[in-house]
Design goal:
This protein has about 750 residues and is of the alpha+beta class. It has 17 helices and 34 strands. Strand 1 and strand 2 form a beta hairpin. Helix 8 packs across helix 10, helix 10 runs antiparallel to helix 11 and helix 12 packs across helix 14.
């Protein structure tokens, strides 16, 4: 990457690239050559490793396949398949444990033929595969049970390969040159696969087997097993990424690793408040969401950080991490603390146009794969998001409001000031009082809000907006971010700074109402383009103006009405762009699809302005959608087709599942419905205008922590309202209900 450039001038010396945003297909577009929804891969993650398997527990190689074992953005196994008697076993069941600790696949033998006759009838052999990830490795146990009335001699074979492809190659990027793939090195029970990248790093996959195979080649391990009648046999396999020489036998390593993996998941998720309700299907969805969130957490020096999603976004993203932490702040504030500290540690301090970095800017994305290290993609440390910086301020303020943790905020204050400095100096590129974006090089992301598709910002006639672009929601984030920084400044006894920030926020609110409101569409403009012409498009972005509180109450009511109209609300959720918009397409990524996290933030905005009936409709729609999803998981997004009786929502083919901010959505929706707030100074939990959607008659929240105290709380439907009752108190904490 180019060296950073110091810049004392008031404006960036290398301004935004003066091109029309979104012309052509962008460089880092994800080709939709294989549907994740069709494959419905089984997903595991731990730390900086993740894996996608098919339902048999195999990794199926082939063009467009996203499956594999990945570590630090490199695919360390691109093929791994089991056969019995030369045939693929038949699937019985395939499921993830409820806590996501392991994948369990039950398989059986097909009819095995020899010389035209059946030598082993189907369904006599059961193979149970248990797979999990731990500390850079994939561990597997295969239990083979013979249910026939005589001993069976079975030939099992595992075939394997490692292409060491960079994640961006797997996504579809083409490379003119690659590094060197080394010849496999074999022992009697071990194969070492290795690759040296163009970045000079040696990457390895060490496969170990127990018992030792009867035949071990560069790409296969063959086992001959004598399994007595009604008896069993056991195989263990370990695939370790970039590991040194092993110190324990394979079976012992498996036993210790699965114990530690389950213990770590229990310990991390035990921090969070728990939710149980009168609806068992919702309980299942909530348990899966918790399991997904804590699987996606990666421990960093400053605390836990939720990686964005699998497979394409299993890495730190600033925007995604902040929003996920915001959604689950009421249940586990430690996540927000970890996110804030990590992003503060990686805040930009210098200008680097190739990384869209400017002093004070908050990280967009971090990668450590070969292509990122070489600069073939700009995402090694990339800062091309316009909203991460004000969202960082919002989260800092929300964390203080939730916890009262002044020590953490004192340590973060220099980073808060740096973020405010970026907003005023670099964010407002033309001095008009709004924050705009424009990439600094042709390699950067063209659109830098959360809707970052090349065609996601457009005018009423369908023309793509030319930059620099001031997005609707970003002005709300800046407004709320400055108010949050003002509240922090007051707590840190900086009253003059607080007053100045409050004045700036109020001035922005007035400008926003004047320039963004579009009477003809009854909503706020999607954006202002580089000529300050409003994009008069009805979009979900306007709902974020309610989330941040920048909208006036009377206009907020009209925004709610528009978003919940048939053009905006599909019945499953609010569309990113309303039906009738020039570029509306329910199958698009951002121009008519439904994103759960987008809806969750909008629901929090509805709740802020007292529109609880709209919250309930949103909550019901998204819950109903989850009932049709595999494992009750809400995906990254789904299509915006209208809801029809007796059918589920239409899946989006390359949506990531699990995705952190989608997994956190049910908890943000619950907070919106209950109006849940925390007042640490008063040692009080507060519910403002609490309500329950029709599918919930009762909600129990346990382990609501406030400082050293905690609370269990019951909310139950009563007539047209609800009753709230504390079930248990530990320490000094009270409950208040405001109607």
């Amino acid at each position: 990457m180019p060296n950073s450039i110091a810049a004392p001038s008031a404006m960036p010396p290398s301004g935004p690239v003066p091109d029309a945003v979104g012309v052509g297909i962008p460089q880092f577009y994800i080709p939709a050559t294989a549907s994740l929804q069709e494959r419905r891969p089984r997903t595991l993650k731990h730390g900086d490793s993740f894996a996608l398997f098919d339902h048999n527990g195999d990794v199926s190689s082939g063009p467009g396949s996203p499956e594999g074992l990945f570590h630090e953005n490199t695919r360390h196994l691109s093929h791994f398949a089991l056969t019995i008697g030369g045939q693929r076993p038949m699937l019985l069941t395939s499921t993830l444990r409820e806590d996501n600790a392991a994948l369990i696949c039950d398989l059986t033998n097909p009819d095995l033929m020899q010389d035209g006759r059946v030598v082993l009838e189907r369904d006599l052999i059961n193979i149970r595969r248990l797979k999990f990830l731990w500390e850079g490795g994939c561990h597997e146990r295969l239990r083979i049970r013979n249910y026939s009335d005589r001993a069976q001699r079975l030939r099992l074979e595992l075939t394997f390969a490692a292409d060491f492809a960079d994640l961006f190659e797997v996504r579809g990027s083409r490379r003119e040159r690659r590094g060197q793939t080394h010849a496999p090195v074999r022992g009697h029970d071990t194969v070492l696969l290795a690759y040296t990248g163009l970045d000079g790093r040696r990457r390895t996959t060490r496969l170990r087997f127990d018992p030792a195979p009867v035949l071990l080649t560069d790409g296969s391990a063959v086992f001959e097993l004598e399994v007595p009648a009604q008896g069993r046999a056991v195989l263990h396999v370990e695939a370790a990424c970039n590991a040194g020489e092993p110190t324990r036998p394979v079976r012992e390593a498996f036993t210790l690793a699965i114990r530690d993996a389950r213990r770590a998941l229990r310990q991390s998720s035990s921090r969070a408040a728990s939710v149980t309700t009168s609806n068992e299907i919702f309980n299942e969805a909530a348990r899966r969401s918790v399991a997904d969130l804590y699987m996606l957490m990666t421990d960093k020096p400053g605390g836990p950080y939720p990686y964005a999603g699998i497979p394409w976004f299993s890495t730190p993203f600033g925007r995604d991490g902040i929003i996920t932490a915001f959604q689950m702040l009421w249940m586990d504030p430690e996540v927000a603390r970890g996110v804030l500290r990590f992003l503060a540690d990686h805040q930009a301090t210098e200008e680097n146009p190739a990384a869209d970095a400017e002093p004070g800017k908050i990280l967009h994305e971090m990668r450590d794969g070969e292509m990122a290290e070489l600069g073939e993609v700009p995402f090694r440390r990339y800062y091309g998001s316009v909203d991460s910086t004000p969202l960082f301020l919002m989260l800092a303020g929300a964390y203080l409001e939730r916890t009262g943790d002044l020590d953490t905020l004192m340590a973060l204050w220099p980073h808060i000031e740096a973020a405010l400095g970026w907003i005023d100096r670099y964010g407002d590129r033309d001095g008009d009082g709004f924050v705009e974006y424009g990439r600094r090089t042709k390699e950067g992301l063209a659109n830098q809000g959360w809707k970052d598709s090349y065609d996601s910002v457009f005018h009423a006639d369908g023309r793509l907006a030319a930059g620099p672009i001031a997005l609707c929601e970003v002005q709300g984030y800046v407004f709320a971010g400055k108010r949050a920084a003002a509240a922090i400044a007051r707590e840190l006894e900086r009253p003059e700074r607080a007053e100045a920030l409050e004045d700036e926020a109020e001035a922005l609110r007035r400008r926003f109402e004047e320039r963004f409101w579009c009477e003809e569409i009854g909503s706020y403009a999607l954006a202002l383009d580089g000529d300050k012409a409003p994009c008069r498009v009805r979009s979900s972005n306007a709902g974020h103006a309610l989330f941040t509180g920048i909208a006036s109450p009377d206009r907020a009511a009209r925004v709610v009405e528009g978003l919940m109209s048939p053009a905006g609300f599909s019945g499953w959720g609010i569309r990113t762009a309303a039906v009738g918009s020039a570029r509306y397409n329910p199958m698009s990524y951002h121009n008519g699809s439904v994103w759960p996290h987008d809806n969750a933030l909008i629901a929090l905005g509805f709740s802020r302005y007292g529109h609880q009936e709209a919250v309930a409709r949103l909550f019901e729609g998204l819950f109903a959608a989850s009932m049709h999803m595999d494992l009750r998981r809400l995906p990254e997004l789904f299509c915006g087709f209208p809801r029809r009786r007796a059918t589920g929502p239409t899946a989006y083919p390359v949506a990531c599942i699990p995705q952190a901010w989608a997994a956190a959505t049910p908890f943000a929706l619950l907070q919106a419905a209950l109006g849940l707030r925390f007042q640490p100074r008063e040692k009080r939990v507060q519910l403002e205008r609490p309500s329950l959607p029709a599918f919930l008659d009762e909600v129990v929240l346990r382990n609501l922590r406030l400082g050293d105290a905690s609370l269990d709380l019951l909310v139950r439907r009563h007539g047209d309202g609800v009753v709230v009752r504390p079930l248990a108190r530990r320490g000094e904490v009270t409950v208040a209900v405001l109607s």
